[in-house]
Structures are given as C-alpha cells and as structure tokens.
Specification:
This protein is an alpha/beta fold. The chain has a single domain, classed as Vaccinia Virus protein VP39 (Rossmann fold, 3-Layer(aba) Sandwich), CATH 3.40.50. It has 10 helices and 7 strands. It has a 7-stranded mixed β-sheet with strand order 3-2-1-4-5-7-6. Helix 7 packs antiparallel against helix 10 and helix 9 crosses helix 10. The longest helix has 19 residues. The protein is globular and about 55 Å long. It starts with a helix and ends with a strand.
C-alpha cells in the first residue's frame, strides 16, 4: 500500500530530523525523543524521560496471559521498545513500526547491539495499514505518534482489527482541550511544524474508538508533569521571532517553530498531554 501525501511528509520529517532530535534531546543516553515528565518522586532527567515508558510497563504487568504480543506504533529508534523489553518475560515479544527508514535502521542496530533480536524487531511501515501483521496483539501503544495519523478513524480501525478481545491500546499524546478549534492560529502552527494530521479532542477520539469496538477505560492528565519553562524553549521562542520566515528554510528549524507553537498550546491550555487506555470488547 502506497503512502499518502501526509505520510510521506511524516517520513521525510523523521528521516531529516531524527539525528538532530537524538543529539539535542533531553537525555542522549536513553535515545528517547518524547517528553520528559516530572511527576512526584522523579529526580533525574533519565527517570523523567522514562516515566511514560514505565506507565506502559505497569499496564502490561497487569495482563495475566503468557507469551504476550506487543506492538509499538511509531516506535522511533526503539528506546521505549527496549526499555519495556528489559522488564518483560522471555516469551513476550515486541514489534515496533516506524514510517522512517532512518529510524528503522538505527533502531534495529540498537536491538542487535543489546542482544534483543530474539524478541524485538522494528519494521518500516505505516500504522494506517497493518495487514502485514499476522498475529493477535495483546497490547499496542503509541507515544506521540497518534497525532501524526492522516486519518484517526483508520488508525483505530487498524488497531482494533489486530487486538485480541480484552486487548488494550495506550495513547500518550497531545489532545485538544474541550471547545478548542483546530483552526486556532497557534494550533495550526503546531500541526504544520510537527506534521500532525490528528490533533483531536479526547471526546472525538472516544467516539471514533467506540465504533471500532475499543472503549476508553482510563484517562490521566499528564500536562502538569511537563516542564513548561525550560531555557531551551525560551531560546527557541526568541529564535522563531528573530528569524521569522527563515524558519521555513530548514526541516529542523521548521520543526522548532512547530515545537514553539506546541509549547504555547500547552502553556495556554489549548492542548493537554494525556495518557489514555482503551480496551477491546
């Protein structure tokens, strides 16, 4: 299945920017490129960037079945996948999906380097078409990847088609606050800079998911755990205002402009960072 125009843009976005995301990320040792979360009891950057990963591990450990089949949707270079794999049983396995050729290459190198290839793998593909997956999935998760979907309803339909009855989907991502228009200028800058196709309100996602037989069973607002006043964010805001249209001349600078808009969405309450658990019935 050929990639859509939007998916090609997402692929290019990560192929061009992943190296810089890893280099300038909050913790190079973990190779996480998602948000650090400073919850109560979190004292180090490494703990903060792994907080979302641990939330997923906690849900996985509640599943009593053996030989779990797990799916990482939008897995990046495999940092979450490998973090989770270290805490699972030997007969559990995880498949990661990324739309980026560069991410898949780096991720599989990381898996080989850590000797985890027997139960971990990363494939290049789109989570809008999971026909290549033959097994039933016990739990799927997506950290800051759902928003890249060109069509959220297709994403949810594809996941539901692969989940076992009682299986779970976990989304950790940005969602519009209730009543916020997707046409708000700051929201549009966020979506443009980060190539987002499905920045939606939770009630919209919940309605779509119910049609596919997956129901929201848990919701935790993680927004207060984000560091909203990092020095780097102040620098990027100044850079964006100073360079203006020149921010469009580079894939990375354009992503920084989107990141500045995202921070503004979070600061002003236009968007919330949420942990959602859905269950197939």
């Amino acid at each position: 299945m050929a990639l859509s125009k939007h998916e090609k843009k997402v692929s290019t976005y990560y192929d061009k920017n992943t190296g810089k995301f890893l280099w300038f990320g909050e913790n190079k040792n973990t190779q996480n490129i998602h948000q650090a979360l400073w919850a109560e009891g979190i004292n180090t950057v490494e703990e903060a960037v792994n907080y979302a990963n641990q939330l997923i591990v906690d849900e996985i450990k509640k599943i009593e079945s053996n030989a779990l089949q797990l799916l990482d949707l939008g897995c990046g270079v495999g940092s979450t996948l490998l973090y989770i794999a270290q805490q699972l049983r030997d007969d559990d396995s995880i498949t990661g999906i990324t739309i980026s050729e560069k991410q898949a290459q780096i991720g599989n190198q990381n898996i080989e380097r850590l000797g985890a290839s027997k139960r971990c793998k990363i494939v290049k593909g789109s989570f809008q078409n999971l026909s290549f997956l033959g097994q039933n999935i016990d739990l799927a998760y997506a950290i800051e990847a759902f928003v890249h979907s060109p069509d959220a309803s297709v994403f949810l339909q594809q996941i539901s088609s692969k989940l076992t009855i009682g299986g779970q989907l976990i989304l950790i991502d940005d969602f519009l606050a209730e009543g916020v228009s997707p046409e708000h200028p700051t929201v549009k800058d966020f979506c443009d800079g980060w190539v987002l196709g499905s920045l939606l309100a939770i009630d919209q996602v919940e309605k779509m998911s119910k049609k596919e037989g997956i129901h929201l069973v848990k919701k935790i607002d993680l927004t207060d755990y984000l560091d909203k006043r990092r020095p780097r964010d102040t620098f990027i805001r100044i850079l964006t205002k100073t360079l203006g249209p020149l921010m469009e001349k580079s894939h990375y600078l354009h992503s920084l402009k989107g990141g500045d808009a995202r921070q503004e969405c979070i600061r002003t309450g236009l968007a919330k960072y949420q942990f959602l658990v859905f269950e197939k019935r």
